[in-house]
Amino acid sequence: MINKEKWAEIIKDWQGQKLPYLVERENLISPDFAIKRAISIIGPRRIGKTYEMFLIIKQIIEKNGRDKTLYINLERADLGVLNYSDLVNLLEVYYSLFPQNKKKTIWLFLDEIQNVSQWEKFVRTCLDEEIKVFLSGSSAKLLSKEIATAMGGRNLSYTVFPFSFREYLSAKGFSQDKYYAEKPKVSGITGTQSVPYYSSEEKSKLINHFDDYLNWGGYPEAVLFSEQREKILRDIFDTAILKDVIERHGIRNISAMKLLIKALLSSKEFSVHKFYNYLKSQNIKVGKNVLYNYLHYLEDAFFVFPLRKFNLSYKKAAQSLPKIYFIDNGLLRVNQIDDKGGLLENLVFTELLRKEFNISYYQNTIKEEVDFLITEGKKVKKLIQVCYDLDNFVTREREIKSIVKASEEFDCDNLLIITKNQEEEIVTGKNKIKVIPAWKWLLEK
Fold it and tell me: pLDDT digit string (tens) for 380-415?
């Protein structure tokens, strides 16, 4: 049991604590929501969930004052084992220090909530008392998604991803203002349009930043401390596997898990059945259902993302061979994955995921493929190919042929090919295909 003097000390320390350096993030959660639900901030390990809380707190302080906020890191060593009663005492002490806020809205941030037994009961009580509650949990002990389950429908979850390219540029101090400069008014044309106003030197720096982002990803710590990024990314990779998967699920066949991860890193399409047969041929005993579970554990820890083939039948889509993508290119690079085309495709996938599009891939009976389909309901809204460059004639013809065939099949005329640095418009028959450099596509708002 934490005594009230200790809680008073922690609360007063928070009121005087300076917020750390914060990189502004896109789609930041607004603290001014009316719904009576807790907000869960979820995402992979070391992605910046605590810093997301601080960014939200910054908004509240600017508008409502510091005293309306209370942030507690529940993993503090000096707190020990906590239970429901400790949090009740915390709130009592807060109101004794700030009695003027008893009838006002306050914002409570509980970081590493899994360290408190019966925390769900406390949070529900807070919601009934009109307190706005934000939660995060360590996926080593309590997967973020389980917060939502524990709250029994009184929760909204928001996922935090690695830095987008725009966020990466902000972290590096590179101004994007010129890219979003207002286009001079032209007779007969209204509104504004995003056009680049970069000098050749500025554009060169931008391209260099993109090359770095393509190769090393957007994990915040690796971006901000680039000299140690390989060590940082290796630590993130190893810790995510050890803590969030192996220890959490009590996996004993560690060698099979490591071989699975190795196979996922090198696979374009992944078949558990084929991998099971491979292990069997190597005299490695592991059940097929166990391998399905292992893959699910990796997905649940935000480590890998299996992408299914598009099919109007949900059952057939679920049974299709998935393409495997990883949460960040940096995790690929520290595992010696340096295929430029593969890195570019993984980058595009994570950006589409960040934008919460409904994504699948397309492959016809003769293996002609479109990397990404964006759908709304049963309607295909956009077709996207990712190709590092279109210089090779055979590659160019293959990419164009596949996307044109798919456009005819799905009656979709929104066609896009994302490249490393090429830009053009390809007209073939009645189809127009927009070709755009990845860096420019990533900067589109």
Answer: 999 999 999 999 999 999 999 999 999 999 999 999
Report the CATH number that the domain containing residue 60 is assigned in CATH: 3.40.50.300
The CA dihedral of 115, 121, 123, 129, to the nearest 10 degrees, is -150
Domain-embedded: residue 424: no
Neighbours of 97 (CB within 10 A): 15
The 10 Å Cβ neighbour count of residue 283 is 6
| Domain span holding position 36 | 4-159
Q: pLDDT digits over 231-247, tens only?
A: 999 999 998 888 888 98
DSSP strand pairing (323-326 vs 304-307): antiparallel
Q: How far apart are the first and last CA of the chain?
A: 50
Question: Is residue 312 packed enough to be buried (19+ CB in 10 Å), middle (13-18) or exposed (0-12)?
Answer: exposed
Q: Are the beta carbons of 304 and 356 closer than 8 angstroms?
A: no
Total number of domains constituting the chain: 1
Rounded to an integer, what distance in angstroms lies between the CA atom of residue 399 and that of residue 396? Answer: 5
CA–CA gap between residue 363 and residue 358 (Å, rounded): 17
> Tell me, what DSSP letter sits at residue 187?
T
> Is 343 among the domain residues?
no
Q: What is the pLDDT of residues 362-383, one digit of tens each?
A: 998 888 999 999 999 889 999 9
Long-range Cβ contact pairs of 186-190 (< 8 A, separation 24 or more): none
In eight-state DSSP terms, residue 388 is S
Q: How many residues in total does the chain contain?
A: 445
Alpha-carbon span 119 to 125, nearest angstrom: 10
- Comparing CA positions, the residue from 337, 323, 421 lying closest to residue 370 is 323
What is the Cα–Cα distance from 301 to 205, expressed in whole angstroms?
35
Closest by Cα among 264, 334, 346 to 297: 264
Q: Do the beta carbons of residue 52 and residue 40 sit within 8 Å?
A: no
| Coil vs helix vs strand at 68 | helix
Write down the residue that tokens 């558990």 correspond to: 272
